[in-house]
Amino acid sequence: MLHIKNCQIIDQNGILNDELLIEKGKIRMIGSEKIKHYIYDSIQKLQIPGLENNEKPLIKTIDAEGNIVMPSFVDLHFHMRNPGQSHKETLLSGNKAALKGGYTHVLAMANTNPVVDSRELVEDMLTENRKLNLIKLFQVSSVTKNLEGKELVDFLKIREMTRFFSDDGKNIDDPKLLEYALYYSRDLDFVILSHDEPETEMVQRNLDIVRKTKGNFHFCHISKEQSMKEIIKAKKEGLNITVEVAPHHIYKSDIDYRVNPPFATESDRKFLIKAIKEGYVDAIATDHAPHTIEDKANGAPGISGIETSFSLCHKVFKEEELGMDKLSKLMSYNPGRFLGLSHREIRAGEDADIVIIKEGSFNIDSKDFESKGKNTPFENDSVEAIVTKTIRKGELLYDNGLN
């Protein structure tokens, strides 16, 4: 059993100052009095002799010392770089980076080498990641073979292994091809995640195709006010669409640092936050995109962001007087539902997937990243919270030693 005491429990339902007990990978109960009696009764029943002789204790206790406990985070947009790009990220470094950022579940994009565009390649990625016994990986398949935008993949076969398809990194420029794919998404119950560039024009075009097909569509890393306005309008129409924003787009504006889509204006950034406040944004997704120093110097777009995403979002939400319960909803509950996970709440019976957060003053230092990618424009930025521990199914998988 794992007993976490003196904690501020925060999930999408609100805040509770209490403690929780984890047993067999699940949250067994919440509440100090209930836990005290349960532990006492368990010890009395077991009557194990010799505990005084330094045998392994029955219960491990973590004193959170008043720090925040939240459901672990779920990322809908992660570039694992596998297969074929281990110079940018390995499965192990990607898993460790996710855990350090507080993530126990990630959805990996398909723009790898080779492109993940078959049932076999999806299955290989899932199998290889399971061997690490760390985070839970969900794998995206491309929509078109080899991301070439010419021929659709075999949706029927690949659907056996995943319900997520994306040509992320590229548009699907042929509107007829996207139309056919969206009909498949409706009939086979899968989701197409869309890269839109130039953003607003492609958002408008893609919304028109969704209106026609009634397919299932997710907008990735939206950064501009006008794009979000078009999506909000479509949501009010009842279209089956969802939308994510990236931490870096709500954290900073007008930065000369290459990322797709680019950093937008301060007006755009403020509108994204307004859309969050009004409930139109479904998830915050990292778009973690690790690169080597050489590739970044040669213009490769992207930020190695999964280890800093919570800290950036926490700072924005504090500045904008948005509650941590809303942040938990956008980083845990909603993306969990998108992937078909359980409720992603701190309550009895749920998987014990938990992070402990310490508030204070900290500086971002890419030398400490677990990711092989050290590419960030936020070097030395001051943040006000970090993840100190990440627990998956009751097992402590990341611990930086701070309480």
Automatic annotation (TrEMBL):
All residue ranges annotated as the Amidohydrolase-related domain in the record: 68-396
Keyword annotations from UniProtKB, A to Z: Hydrolase, Metal-binding, Pyrimidine biosynthesis
SUPFAM superfamilies registered for this protein in UniProt: Composite domain of metallo-dependent hydrolases (SSF51338), Metallo-dependent hydrolases (SSF51556)
Main EC class the enzyme belongs to: hydrolase
Enzyme Commission code: 3.5.2.3
Keyword Metal-binding set for record: yes
Required cofactor(s): Zn(2+)
GO molecular function: dihydroorotase activity
Task performed by this protein: Catalyzes the reversible cyclization of carbamoyl aspartate to dihydroorotate.
Family under the similarity heading: Belongs to the metallo-dependent hydrolases superfamily. DHOase family. Class I DHOase subfamily.
Name under which the protein is recorded: Dihydroorotase
The species this protein was found in: Acetoanaerobium pronyense
